[in-house]
Fold:
Amino acid sequence: MRIREGDPLEIYTDNDGEVIFKKYSPIGELSSFASQYAEVLGKIGGYPVVVCDRDHVISVAGIPKKELLERRVSPQLEEVMEQRRSFAVTGDGRKMQPVEGVDRFALVQAPIIAAGDVCGSLMFLAGDNPSPATDTEIKLIQVGAAFLGRQMEE
Structure:
């Protein structure tokens, strides 16, 4: 478990008096809502959709869930999220593998920002040789990420 400065933690004690720290994921509270949103977005966009918090995949639509669910996000995606940047395939050969140990690449990705903090990411996954992302695909992901961020603020 990676704990960064400012990460929220839940603290428990067990029967033996040992202290247990559990990392709290605010976006995890939205997992059922995020799953429904991802399903609809996947049907409209035509690509598999992944929603993740800053550490793990929390929701998947359009591909088997067991392939990605609860897997760790890649260092490349962590860096993009920390910099509050989006990513889109543009045809220049750049690829981003968003999930560790999975040979799938992001077509479009946008950070989920709530109350000024990055708390996750929303993305379409592409095939091995994706064509450049269209403006529509980019806007769908940007709007979706903004919407999920807004839901977390409430």
